[in-house]
Each structure stands twice: as structure tokens, then as C-alpha cells.
Amino acid sequence: MSVRTHRHLPWRVGGLSLMAAGCASAAIGDGASAMWSLAGFVLAIVGLVLVVQGGRVPLALRVERSRHRELPMAIHARRLADRLTRSRG
Which of 42, 47, 50, 82 is most exposed, with the fewest beta carbons within 10 Å of its own? Predict the structure, then answer.
């Protein structure tokens, strides 16, 4: 097992357990309560994303918590402001 796969394994296992919990809660609801079925569906989808994208989840969380998450928007706003000032002057 490679190091990369070894790091991603807990995220994929977590996704698999969320999918199982989602399917179980949807089965428990059995159409009687739409809330159980909806919660089960959401859990299953989140679990599926974790299983498929298991390696990218920690990276996405790190980027989101970093101070650079708004950098592309700041660069775009600065360029737009520069373009507007050049066109006026």
C-alpha cells in the first residue's frame, strides 16, 4: 500500500461508514417519515463524495481554513479596479 493511499484510507472508510449510516436511516424511515429518508439521502451522498474524493478532502479543508482562500477574488477585484481607473483617466 502506498503512502498516498495510506493517508486517504481513513477518509474513504469514513465515507463508507457514512454511506452505510445513510442507507440504514433511509431504510428505518421506510417512507413513514420524510425527514429520516432525507437525512439518509444526505448522509449517503456525503459518504459517496468521501469515498470517491477521499484524498482531496483534507487538502480542501486546509485551503478553506488558510488565509489565502480569498486571494483569487482579491486579485480579480484589484484588476477590475485598475481597469476602471485606466479607462477613466
Answer: 82
